Amino acid sequence: MKNIFYIILVGIIFSCAQEKKELPKAIDFRNGTFKELLAVAEKEEKLIFIDCYTSWCAPCKWMDKNVFVNENVYSFYNSTFINYKIDMEKGEGPELAKKYNVKSYPTYLFINSKGDLVHKSTSRMSVEEFITVGENAIDPSKAFGILTAKYEQNKMSNDEMLNYAISLQKMRINTADEVLDKLMLKVDDEWLLSFSGWKLIESFVFDENSKLFNVLNSNKEHFISITNKETVYKVYQRILQRKMYASTNEQNETLFFQQLDSLKKLTDSARDIAILHCNYYAKGNDADKFIKTSNYYVDNFLTDDPETIAFIARSVYRKSFEESPKILLQAAELITKAYEMNPNDYGTVSTFAQIQGIVGNKEEAIKAGELAVKMADTISSKVKKRALQNLKELKEKQ
Hints:
By secondary structure, this protein is an alpha+beta fold. The protein has 3 domains: 34-138, Glutaredoxin, CATH 3.40.30; 149-222, no CATH class; 269-396, Serine Threonine Protein Phosphatase 5, Tetratricopeptide repeat, CATH 1.25.40. It has 22 helices and 4 strands. Strands 2-1-3-4 form a 4-stranded mixed sheet, sandwiched between helices. The longest helix is centred in the middle third of the chain and has 22 residues, at 229-250.
């Protein structure tokens, strides 16, 4: 009798283990028509999450491979939404793309059981960002579709208008500035000094010629107290770096180095300082100072930062070899160093190919160009097209 009980117990445990083993290890996308999914959403009282993709969309494939299979992602999405994936160029795809104004891929739609758009987001993103997108979809104060309807009905609170303006800006929709202007007419000084006001400043201050900058500058210590110094300084840094690019273009040496000293007080980021400092000499075609300055940063601050080294090299590759041979030969040295440190980065490989082609190392350039084409398959069709064009030009170069 004990043996029989033991066998039954083992069988139950094994069966449970099998069930557990068969749970989805990715977002569980349902089958069926869109109409059928609407019925399921009504029955289960959940939103439908739709991953809008195309067969040629490399960022879509990247999300499949790197984000949808993350345990935190699929646990949240599988428990919260009815998940649906559809190729927007096949079957019901074109009709849905038109209905929900899908123009780029990937696009993520969150639809209620009536077919109304509740939330929308786009592009490749990290695990954390993608979870936040889902969380925003079930938060009425942040869900894009709900906010759009409220905006059109003129029934928005100030904070809802803030979230709407930020969402529009992130999706690069032109009406973000229109919403910002309307919000600025509604809010008072007390709101501008709140954390909501800070979020508006952080998202929309890019220069010194705005009311929002004046609010920030007059209340800097206050905003530091409700956020932190680093976050506030990032806004000042963004403004200053824009001004530094202007003084670089003008080759205003006195002003540029005053700004560089100011930048060093705002950040200890070697990347930002190195890029701007090297760019000043590259723009002025001062080869000796470009070589000396770039070597200084690479040897002392960028020893484990191939991305920044590649960025400095990339910033000069459009120069002509006849006019700037020493600068381009230095760029070749820099990009070779970055390539050796990180041979699996598309941007580095592509830049290596282009610069080697410019300085006359055609064989190395073509080899790297061919590798860049293969790597572009995992990024986007637009990048792949550009990589193919670059390779064609390298092969045609005498």
